[in-house]
Amino acid sequence: MSLPPEKAPELKQIIHNHLMKINIHDKIREVLAETVRDDTSSTHNQPLSEKDFLHALQRRGIIDSVMNDLHFAQLSSSYFCSLANIDPCRRYLYLQVLGGKAFLEHLQEPEPFPGQVCSTFTLYMHFRNQRFRSKPVPCACEPDIKEGFLLEVHKDEIGEGSRMADGTTMLSICDPVHLVLIKTDTSSETTLVSSHLLDWRTVLSSTSGKTCIAVELMGVGTNSKVPAGIMTVSLELYPPLTETISPDIITTQQSLERQRAAEKDRLFLVYAKQWWREFLEIRPTHQSKMVKIFAQDENGVNRPVCSYVRMLRAGRLLEGPRQAARFVSLLAQEKAPVVGSGVGKHEQWCTLLAFLCRGKGDCEDHATLLCSLLLGFGLDAYVCVGTKAKGAPHTWVLTRGTDGSVTFWESLTAHRYLHQAIDPDAPPLVQQPKPSHPYRTVGCVFNHQSFLANCQPSDAVELCIFDFQNQSQWKAMSEEALKSVCSPGSSTSLPPVPPLTAPSLDPAAASNQLELEMRYLISEHRKDLDLATVWDDHLSYLLSSALSAYELERCTGVSCGNEEFQDAVRRAVPDGHTFKGFPIHFLHRNGRRAFATSLRSPFCDEIICCRGDHVRLAVRVRVFFYPENTCAVWVMFACKYRSVL
C-alpha cells in the first residue's frame, strides 16, 4: 500500500517512539564506546569512520534486532489505525497484487522506452460495494502490477455493521472479489482481457492471517476456456483471527454453496423447459419469436436474463431518469469480437462491472444498465427483446406509467418514443397513429423480478398491447422460480452489482486542454495550406452557451438559450461580415481523432479552411463528465469574415 505524503511524518514519529521504547540510544553508545576502546588499544593510527561504526553495529546484531522489531506485524496496529485512518473495531482484508506472469499474448512485446506511449493493463476490483483500480502499467508477458487494496469486511444486516466480523461470520460471506483486467491501446481503445471471481476465504485458515495465491485469469467470450495469464495475489486479514478455521471446513462450505447453487440452477432449468413447452402449445408460430430466457456472459456462463438487471440507485451522481439515459448512451457500442469471418455475431452479455470498466458494450449491456437505473428511480421498467428495421435483433427499454402510457427508451441514443398501438379491427377510414420508433417486433420483456413472453397473435410492436396482467397476451414465468436463481445472493456464480463511481476528472481543465490542442491542430493545418490563423477569443467565449444548451437538450429533450446565443453572435459580428459555426459531438477526448473526424465533414472543413478578407477563427470545447468518467465532448468551430461581392 502506498503511503500518502502527508502521512510520512506520522510514520517517522511512530518509528522514533518505538526506538525510544527499546532504549536503542544506550545500546548504540555502548557499542561505540567499545569500538573506540578497541581502536585506542590497536596499533594502527587510522581514524574511525562512519563505515567502521556501522560495521560494529551490524557485527553485534543491533541493526538486525531493530529491523526485526520494526517488522510489519509488530507495527500493524499503529500503521493501519494511524496511517490508513481505519476503524480498529472492524475487520479488513488487505489484498496485494504482486505482479503477473504468463501473459503469452505479449511475449514478443518490446520493453517501452521512457516516455514512450504504449498499451497498458489496468486492474479493476469490486468487493461488497467497494471499488478500486490499479495504476496503468505497460503490457508485457510479466506485467508489473504491484499495488495493495484495503477491503472492508462487514455484515449487511441492520445492527451488525459496527461489529467486528469473526471467522464464522466471514466464512458465511460468499461475496467474491471481482477482478476485471482491461487493456488500453495507444489510441485509447479498451479491450476486456479477463473477468475473474476470486474466493478470498482461503485466508481464514492461515495461522499468520496471511496467504499468497496464484490466480489464473481466463480469457473472455470465445476464449473463456483459454488462460490469459496468471496474477500473484497476497491476502492478509487485519486484525488476524484469534482462532483460525480448518481448511477442510472452508472447502466443505465452498462445496455446499456450489451444490446448493447447482441444484437451484437444475430446478430452474427443469421449470424453464416446462414453461417453454407450454408457450409453444399456445400457438405453433411462437417457435420463431424472440424469447430469450438465458444469455451467456463474458466467461461463457449461461445465466437467466433476469439476473443481468438489478435495482440500481446512483446516489447523487445522476439527477433523474433522463440524465441516466444520457449517461448510458455515452458508453460506446461495440459488438463482441469474433475470430474468423463467419456470418452473424457472437452474442455476449457482460456483467455490469466488466461493462463499466471497459466503457463500451453491445445493446444488451446498455439496455440492462438503463433498465436497472430506471428501476432505481422508481419507474416500472423492463428490457424488451425483439427486432428493429430489416429484422436485426435488438434490445431496448420500456416503461409503463400509472396512467397506462407506454414509453420506449433507446439505450444507445437516449431517445424516447411514446407507444400508441394500432387497432387492426378499426374501420379503414379511422386515422391510425404512425409509429415514430424504429422497433419492428417484440418477443419478450423482463426485469429483475419478471419475465413475460409475448403470446399475442402478432409480435409487431405497433400492434402490441403492453398489459402484462392480461394472461391471454403475455405468458409470465413464476416470480418465485426467478427469485430462486436471480435474486442477490441466490447463487455464488452471480457477481454482485457494483455501485457507480463519481467522475474524478476536472471538466474545466479537460475542456481547456482539449481546446488548446484543437487550436494547435487548426493552426498547423492552415499553415500547411499557406493560410494565416488569427483567433477571436471573444467569439470563442460566446460559443460556450450554445454547447451547454446542446448538452442540456440531449439530457432533457428541451431546447433553451438559443435566442440569447444568436443575439450575442449578432453583436459580435460586424455589419458586412459573415458568421459560420459548426458543432460536433464526441464520446472521447482524443484531440487528433476528433480533429480528423471533424475534417471529414464538409461544413467543418469549410470553416477550418476558410479563405477571405479579415478572417477570424474561433473554437470552443466543453467536456461534460458523468459517472465512471464517461464524457460528452462538444466542439464548436466558427469563423467570421468580411463579405466581398
Automatic annotation (TrEMBL):
Principal cellular location given in the protein's record: cytoplasm
Biological processes, Gene Ontology terms: regulation of centriole replication
A GO cellular-component term linked to this record: centriole
Domain annotation Centrosomal protein of 76 kDa C-terminal: ranges: 505-642
Span of domain CEP76 C2: 85-241
Domain spans labelled CEP76/DRC7 peptidase-like: 347-477
Pfam families: CEP76-C2, CEP76_C, CEP76_N, CEPT76_peptidase
Keywords of this entry: Cytoplasm, Cytoskeleton
Chain ranges of the CEP76 N-terminal domain: 10-70
Keyword Electron transport: no
Subcellular location: Cytoplasm, Cytoskeleton, Microtubule organizing center, Centrosome, Centriole
InterPro entries (alphabetical): CEP76 (IPR052299), CEP76-C2 (IPR028926), CEP76_C (IPR056288), CEP76_N (IPR056289), CEPT76/DRC7_peptidase-like_dom (IPR056290), Papain-like_cys_pep_sf (IPR038765)
Similarity comment: family membership: Belongs to the CEP76 family.
The protein's role, per its UniProt record: Centrosomal protein involved in regulation of centriole duplication. Required to limit centriole duplication to once per cell cycle by preventing centriole reduplication.
Name by which UniProt lists this protein: Centrosomal protein of 76 kDa
